[in-house]
Amino acid sequence: MRMKRLVAPAAAWIALCAVTGAGHAHITAEGLFLRVDGSLVVRVVGNTVTGSLAMPDNLSTDDLDVTFLDENGAEFVAPDPATLQWSINAVIASVAQTGPWSLQLTGQNVGTTNLAIKILFVDHVDYTSPSIPVRVVGASDVPVTVLAPGLVAWPNPCVDHLRYALTGPAAQSAGGSDEVRLLDTAGRLIWAAPVAGSDGTVPMAGLPLGSYWLEWHSPGTASVTTRVIHVR
């Protein structure tokens, strides 16, 4: 698992609770962070969820690294023998564990569902997150013309980086002189890069917060755009 931040020693957040006179170790968590390559994607504090997860049908997210928050807002990674668990509607999206505290979602069918992340400590669940929105999109969810491909972008809103993918039959022929562009709402070019394959990443760190247009430009066809939002 790729952890990009220093976190507090997990042992500091293990408490003892008395149940019918017996001491039982448990982990106290008040929230969590989900990160992709160090970039914050979802923040959960108490019952408040900021951010969501989105992916195209039949494509997977990058690894999502999970850290938890104690009552003071400090991050920690739950220690052994704690393990990661989750619940989700697997008809819409499946979950694969890619590390002790990381997971990956794969779109199965277009639709929406919710992800709940849990800490299982020995024989009991110590923490269950509130519902994290998950959306799986397909070609019908984005503007598609006969000549132009569809374009999806996620996570949206985004923080430090934005992933994109070309959908539909045109994804098989992406490349050549195609270009991906990021425009502000006035149509000014902010960033551009030649297309390498049918998906890629746009660096968003350092850009002003707000709305942008992501454009897939292919000479000889109509450009395809989708609105994206940059947040802190």
List the helices and strands and how they pair.
Layout: E1 14-19, E2 22-27, E3 31-36, E4 39-45, E5 48-50, E6 53-56, E7 64-69, E8 75-76, E9 82-87, E10 93-99, E11 102-107, E12 111-121, E13 124-128, E14 132-137, E15 150-154, E16 161-167, E17 179-184, E18 189-194, E19 199-203, E20 210-217, E21 224-230
Parallel strand pairs: 6-14
Antiparallel strand pairs: 1-2, 3-4, 3-7, 4-5, 7-8, 7-11, 9-12, 10-11, 12-13, 12-14, 15-16, 16-19, 17-18, 17-20, 20-21
Question: Can you give me a brief rundown of this structure?
Answer:
This protein is mostly beta strands and 232 residues long. It has no helices and 21 strands. It is 0% helix and 54% strand.
Name the helicity range.
Answer: under 10%
CATH architecture of the largest domain: Sandwich
Can you tell me the CATH topology of the largest domain? Immunoglobulin-like
Low-confidence stretches: 1-23, 142-149
Number of domains: 2
> Could you tell me the number of beta strands?
21
Question: What's the level 1 CATH class of the largest domain?
Answer: Mainly Beta
Main sheet?
7 strands, antiparallel
State the helix count: 0
Pattern of helices and strands: EEEEEEEEEEEEEEEEEEEEE
Overall form: elongated
Sheet-strand content, in percent, reads over 45%
Q: What do the pLDDT scores average to? A: 78
Q: What would you report as the Rg, rounded to the nearest angstrom?
A: 20 Å
Secondary structure category: mainly beta
Span between termini: 24 Å
